[in-house]
């Protein structure tokens, strides 16, 4: 709790805050970081294997194998989410499962599964992007700003 908010508490509330803070279990930060690294690395290793599969058996090159690889990884994530298995991996791996594209697909798929009882249009369609929508908007806006900066720098450098 910040010191500003702590000043507004009564002495009894401050005493309770101290009591609660002393009994709060310590988080295993290092272990969580290691698990996130392992989970994210495992997902990326699978992605690399899928990419090598496309390069080896379908004559893609590294540049063209990226799109089908991402599509396969998204499908794997959605299938594991619908079977309830991705949640167990995410519970263990934490942020390591949220950072790759599979975490984003899991977010959309889990929101869809939670609202399917409301119907396909208003339930699944309406709530699918409730969580992921702001991420999409921020990503598109950020890409737009970066593109404007790049074009501006290129045009100033070309003078």
Q: Which strand-content bin applies to the residues?
A: under 5%
Helix percent band: over 70%
The ordered string of helix (H) and strand (E) elements is HHHHHHHHH
Number of strands: 0
Treating each run of at least 4 consecutive H or I residues as one helix, how many helices? 9
In round numbers, the mean pLDDT is: 88
What's the end-to-end separation, in Å?
53 Å
Rg, nearest Å: 22 Å
Which residues form runs of ≥5 with pLDDT under 50?
A: none
Query: What profile does the largest beta sheet have?
Result: none
- Estimate nothing, just give the exact number of structural domains: 2
Q: Give the overall shape, derived from the CA principal axes.
A: extended
Structural class: mainly alpha
